[in-house]
Amino acid sequence: MVSFLIAAAFFVATLLFIYGLKRMASPVTAPSGIRVAGWGMVIAVAAAFLYAFDVRPAASEHLGTNFLLALVALGIGVAWAWRSGKRVEMTGMPQMVALYNGMGGGAAAAIAAVELYSGNAQHYGFVVTVLALVGGLIGAVALSGSVVAWAKLDGRLNRTLRFSTQQLVNGGLLALAALFALYVLIVGAGGVPTTGITLFFIAALVLGVLLTTPIGGADMPVVISLYNAFTGLAVAFEGFVLQNPAMIIAGTVVGSAGTLLTFLMAKAMNRSVSNVIFSNFGEEDDGSGGIEGSMKSVDASDAAISMYYGSKVIIVPGYGLAVAQAQHKLYEFVKLLQKQGVEVAFAIHPVAGRMPGHMNVLLAEAGIPYDIIHDLEDINEEFALSDAALVIGANDVVNPAARTNESSPIYGMPILNVDYAQQAFVVKRGQGRGYSGVENELFFADNTHMVYGDAQKVMVEMIEAVKSLGNA
Fold first, then answer.
1. Taking all residues of the chain, what is their mean pLDDT, rounded to a whole number?
2. Which of 49, 214, 314, 355 could link 162 by a cystine bridge, Cβ 3.0 to 4.6 Å?
């Protein structure tokens, strides 16, 4: 009876995972999709605890202690996740996603370690041992790599570690992990090679660190997506080891979705995934080649009035908007423009922000209607028809060098055509370069004016300027 309840619970949980993921495909239904998938996870965890009532007598010696430890661990995890989830700011969302992603990979690696050190994987044969090792390798790489990504995004690791033989070292570490895995497979038939298992996991963890440290901040959205795929695959492999169908299906779904998203984001940058991982993007010459012209500044009030008397304005949000937490003030300004009869639209680049979908979540938090938020391919032709484009905190995704400068590292990357607008206003705190380190040709264009200052303060000034006209 217990076995039937466990199987039924996992079946229901699987259906909820898939249905929840389906609803996450649309911003309108995404909140309910998250709740549906969450309930699926609750059922899956509850089903896991049912195993305590379906164990053989020989395996029940430490059942009470293990059950208590599992409950304590679950309580600590829930409390920590609830607290951090409630407190995290929108600017901290990418690093939180990276960290939670790493926890998933670490959990898969921990399962592999338990199964290998206990000898359970070896006991069930060659195939199960291979699956445990592969899942352990991918999970360990995802864990250490995600922690490095978190440290970079959170400003705790500001240096980019690069050296000339890095790719050879990485290849050597991968080969070393494979050799230790082979050793475990060969020796494991007659015992538990604890030293070989330990060295295997050490090599995998160091590999994850060295794979991630040379990757620049501009590539972090792709890296987070890639490690998400790694975590899903690791969980799926360990699901086979534990013969847990919910883990197998959930891991496969997450792994395949993460892989697809990774390739789509790399395509949006006109680069391959291997180029993101193995190239030193932004390390060499920035390709500016001596940009002609100079940056021209304008007051926030003048920029606001110019947009107020226009007919069509396109807004491009970026990470600077999230840093300033200015999305609510921005929407207040947008409503004033709309009241005047100005057509307003938002343009979202696939890799804007620090993680996939960062800008969409940011705008949704402010209550901005989904029907005025458009992806790059849907709105790019509209810039030439607009009176003004307002760029807030975005940089590399609006750089015309991607179209015009073959020596630029971002050449060929699809960008938002802000430079085609009649006027472009760029809200920026200073004259620094983007996260990729590439100088932005848009800032020097004749039709571009810089509005310097914190995005929230700038938006307040714009709102006051429009309201002072007396028609708002």
1. 85
2. 214
